[in-house]
């Protein structure tokens, strides 16, 4: 039974009792009856005032509770001229002002945090208490190369294989650093926070590739500069001496002249090869920033295919095309990207040797180029080291071809991957 009902029943009982007493007084004394009637009227008026005084604040409190329950902090009450009630109204209004300020502040902080997460260059994966993906920001989508809606609801173990292998064993408070495809280096840190009493986890992904490549580039730039200086000084002096010796060749006996000239020419040629060798290294160091312009990748591929066609025919290597239905126009430095694709195609030809197939595939969404060969394949250990400067598996290689490919693609902002399985090696460039 509510307080209002109890009050009304009590008032009805009292006034019924007074009415009965008035009826008995009517039988005894009319003047006392009239006095009792006045008492009853006065009691009704006082009861009405007490009802208003008691239950109007309760009505206000109930309305305020409903507003708070509906999270409507804009409702405020006006003063009514009653001291006790006005004090309650003032307390309520101050409370609503404070709640509104807190709500606006929390909304602004949440909005700012959401914007920071979305704009952060670091990848953020939000996880539920059961390690299910609850949210990813654009940087994490870029690193994992999957759209957010494709990752939502998946367990960490269901993320792309290379990532799942590193992230599944990661405990809260731990960090790990690893490299993907021999080039892309990431540091991941796992932590947790409390939300409404439940523990949630998140994984922070930081890309270290650019910093590591910059340090690596500075290191081998210094080495190459020193080597080039010493080699060029030496070959220059030696070539000068060899040129002077050629002057004396006619003074030798005729039967010794051919051998003498041949030996000198071999030495000169070896010096020239050494100079070219160092020049190739210097090209990696002096790689300019890309001058980008729109270019149809299909046209570029066809131009390179015509250039390599004689070698393809000589090796009996077929080239199959799976091009997108529409032109794949991308903003690139045409000369540099031509070097990249030409290097990949030559590597594919060398991996096949003879009697094989190269497949060239493009797609529009997302824009991507994939070159696949059925050559000897590459072991996982070698894959991790292929893009390391000066590392090569070729007997006469210098280890700068894929280094230059890597630097050009990184400068363009393109991600890439190299995979080799089931007798097929694929180089994929995400444009």
TrEMBL record:
A Pfam family it matches: PAS_8
The answer to whether UniProt assigns keyword Kinase to this entry is yes
Q: Which SUPFAM superfamilies match?
A: ATPase domain of HSP90 chaperone/DNA topoisomerase II/histidine kinase (SSF55874), PYP-like sensor domain (PAS domain) (SSF55785)
Chain ranges passing through the membrane: 7-25
The segment(s) forming the Histidine kinase domain are 226-431
Catalytic class of the enzyme: transferase
> This protein's superkingdom?
Bacteria
> What keywords would UniProt list here?
ATP-binding, Kinase, Membrane, Nucleotide-binding, Phosphoprotein, Transferase, Transmembrane, Transmembrane helix, Two-component regulatory system
Task: Please write the reaction equations for the catalytic activity of this protein.
Answer: ATP + protein L-histidine = ADP + protein N-phospho-L-histidine
Q: Where is the HAMP domain?
A: 52-104
Enzyme Commission number: 2.7.13.3
> In Gene Ontology terms, what is one molecular function of this protein?
kinase activity
Localization (cell): Membrane
Which PROSITE patterns does this one have? HAMP (PS50885), HIS_KIN (PS50109)
Specify the protein name.
Answer: histidine kinase
Origin species = Pontibacter toksunensis
């Amino acid at each position: 039974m509510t307080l209002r009902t109890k009050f009304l029943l009590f008032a009805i009982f009292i006034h019924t009792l007074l009415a009965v007493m008035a009826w008995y007084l009517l039988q005894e004394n009319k003047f006392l009856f009239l006095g009792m009637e006045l008492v009853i009227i006065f009691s009704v008026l006082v009861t009405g005032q007490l009802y208003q005084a008691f239950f109007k604040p309760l009505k206000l409190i109930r309305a305020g509770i409903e507003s708070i329950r509906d999270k409507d902090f804009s409702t405020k009450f006006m003063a009514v001229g009653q001291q006790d009630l006005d004090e309650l109204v003032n307390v309520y209004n101050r409370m609503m002002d404070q709640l509104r300020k807190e709500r606006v502040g929390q909304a602004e902080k949440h909005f700012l945090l959401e914007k920071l997460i979305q704009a952060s260059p670091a990848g953020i994966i939000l996880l539920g208490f059961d390690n299910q993906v609850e949210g990813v920001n654009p940087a994490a989508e870029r690193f994992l190369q999957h759209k957010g809606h494709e990752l939502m609801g998946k367990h960490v173990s269901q993320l792309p294989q290379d990532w799942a292998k590193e992230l599944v064993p990661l405990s809260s408070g731990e960090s790990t650093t690893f490299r993907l495809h021999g080039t892309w280096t990431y540091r991941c840190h796992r932590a947790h926070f409390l939300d409404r009493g439940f523990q949630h986890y998140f994984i922070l992904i930081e890309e270290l590739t650019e910093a590591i490549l910059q340090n690596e580039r500075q290191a081998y730039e210094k080495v190459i500069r020193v080597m080039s200086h010493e080699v060029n000084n030496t070959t220059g002096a030696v070539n000068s001496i060899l040129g002077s010796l050629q002057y004396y060749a006619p003074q030798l006996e005729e039967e010794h002249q051919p051998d003498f000239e041949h030996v000198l020419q071999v030495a000169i040629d070896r010096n020239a090869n050494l100079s070219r060798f160092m020049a190739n290294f210097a090209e990696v160091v002096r790689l300019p920033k890309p001058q980008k312009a729109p270019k149809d990748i299909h046209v570029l591929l066809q131009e390179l295919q015509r250039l390599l066609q004689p070698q393809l025919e000589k090796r009996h290597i077929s080239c199959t095309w799976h091009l997108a239905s529409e032109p794949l126009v991308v903003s690139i430095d045409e000369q540099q990207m031509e070097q990249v694709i030409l290097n990949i195609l030559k590597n594919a030809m060398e991996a096949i040797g003879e009697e094989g197939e190269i497949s060239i595939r493009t797609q529009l969404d997302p824009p991507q180029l994939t070159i696949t060969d059925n050559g000897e394949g590459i072991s996982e250990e070698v894959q991790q080291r292929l893009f390391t400067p000066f590392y090569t598996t070729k007997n006469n290689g210098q280890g700068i071809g894929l280094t230059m490919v890597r630097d050009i693609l990184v400068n363009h902002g393109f991600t890439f991957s190299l995979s080799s399985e089931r007798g097929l090696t694929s180089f994929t460039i995400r444009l």
